[in-house]
């Protein structure tokens, strides 16, 4: 029987929970501010920024999956766009209706979203035997073949994908509530009418937060430690009992599940899917995201996804106010070309000056802030020898 009072037993857990919520670092404080801004964003953002936010949050989900594969497990992949396409077309096929010569199953969108994650994960698991036998640039080249295979399927399976022109995406809905503008129920919050973009914003935000939470759990758990061991050295990992092939298969499967969800979210954000949305450049963009953010960092991958996704949209939106930008196809520097230049400069700068990416910079800033705010310990006074009392 414990001698501690009953009140102490009841208050122990809540007090620990409250103490764990202290914003004692720049990273935690910045995360809290960003979360509050994201929750309140639809109340004051325009449609352009809402649309850009949807693309950024969808990309963040896919970038988290890729950073687990590349940054944590150390497995190079250039086929992320293929798994994005699998998720997007699976959702479109299962949630869509059969019309205009295209197949459709008319399943509930929630079930279609879960199926998109499952089918993409199954595709990653099917590729895992190849991933288990290759590593480095050879694995990257093997995964690159998936992008060309996927593009061939997207273009030729016209009854499923719609071919070159693509097909529209069924709006998301849950029982009793629709995320589409066609919903006759009027919804307003603090005087702001909530249309499809506003409703999808909170759906995407919830999925992105869940993806980040699960990603941190995987990285910090037993599976993450095994992935890190394989990344640091396959021979050493095998010598301590880690099954290297199984760890690689797990990493590819988990990354593919994330990509499947990201693909379905991207399809919902666009409202339409087409083969060009899952080209090789998309895989390169995702690699840029995790390099800029810091390979292996969940928060860094999310930050890199926001940068890479939003920058081209901003340049296109405000190209009229930037005199050095030319119209697309004119032979000058257009918004897309400038964004590629910025990516290149940013990558070189990160590799030279910030080897840990944005996450590493914030980590160093937090360490310096903690050291600066820590009070200096006063000098210990010299100990004086006192004569011992003589025994009586």
Automatic annotation (TrEMBL):
It is found in: Cell membrane. The chain crosses the membrane at residues 26-45, 51-70, 77-94, 106-127, 136-154, 200-218, 249-271, 277-296, 303-321, 341-362. Its main location: membrane. GO terms for cellular component: plasma membrane. It is a multi-pass membrane protein. CDD domains: TM_PBP1_LivM_like (cd06581). Keywords: Cell membrane, Membrane, Transmembrane, Transmembrane helix. InterPro entries: ABC_transp_permease, LivM-like. Residues 372-392 are annotated as: Disordered. The keyword NADP does not apply. GO terms for molecular function: branched-chain amino acid transmembrane transporter activity. This is Branched-chain amino acid ABC transporter permease. It comes from Actinomadura livida.
């Amino acid at each position: 029987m414990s001698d501690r009072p009953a009140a102490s037993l009841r208050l122990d857990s809540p007090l620990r929970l409250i103490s764990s919520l202290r914003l004692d670092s720049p990273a935690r404080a910045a995360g809290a501010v960003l979360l509050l801004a994201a929750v309140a964003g639809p109340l004051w953002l325009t449609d352009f920024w809402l649309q850009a936010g949807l693309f950024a949050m969808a990309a963040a989900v896919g970038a988290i999956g890729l950073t687990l594969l590349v940054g944590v497990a150390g497995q190079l992949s250039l086929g992320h766009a293929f798994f994005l396409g699998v998720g997007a077309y699976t959702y479109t096929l299962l949630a869509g209706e059969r019309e205009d010569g295209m197949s459709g199953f008319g399943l509930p969108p929630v079930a279609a979203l879960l199926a998109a994650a499952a089918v993409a994960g199954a595709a990653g698991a099917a590729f895992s035997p190849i991933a288990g036998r290759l590593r480095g640039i050879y694995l990257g080249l093997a995964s690159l073949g998936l992008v060309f295979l996927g593009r061939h399927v997207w273009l030729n399976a016209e009854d499923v994908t719609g071919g070159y022109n693509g097909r529209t995406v069924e709006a998301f809905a849950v029982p009793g509530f629709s995320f589409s503008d066609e919903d006759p129920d009027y919804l307003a919050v603090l005087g702001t009418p909530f249309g499809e973009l506003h409703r999808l914003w909170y759906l995407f935000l919830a999925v992105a937060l869940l993806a980040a939470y699960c990603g941190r759990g995987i990285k910090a758990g037993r599976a993450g430690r095994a992935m890190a061991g394989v990344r640091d050295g396959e021979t050493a990992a095998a010598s301590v009992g880690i099954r290297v092939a199984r760890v690689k298969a797990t990493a590819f499967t988990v990354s593919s599940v994330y990509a499947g969800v990201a693909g379905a979210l991207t399809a919902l954000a666009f409202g339409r899917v087409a083969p060009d949305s899952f080209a090789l450049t998309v895989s390169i963009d995702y690699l840029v995201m995790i390099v800029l953010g810091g390979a292996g960092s969940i928060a860094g991958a999310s930050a890199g996804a926001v940068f890479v996704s939003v920058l081209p949209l901003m340049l296109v939106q405000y190209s009229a106010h930037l005199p050095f930008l030319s119209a697309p196809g004119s032979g000058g520097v257009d918004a897309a070309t400038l964004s590629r230049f910025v990516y290149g400069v940013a990558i070189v700068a990160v590799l030279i000056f910030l080897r840990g990416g944005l996450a590493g910079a914030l980590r160093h800033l937090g360490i310096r802030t903690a050291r600066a705010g820590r009070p200096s310990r006063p000098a210990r006074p010299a100990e004086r020898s006192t004569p011992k009392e003589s025994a009586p």
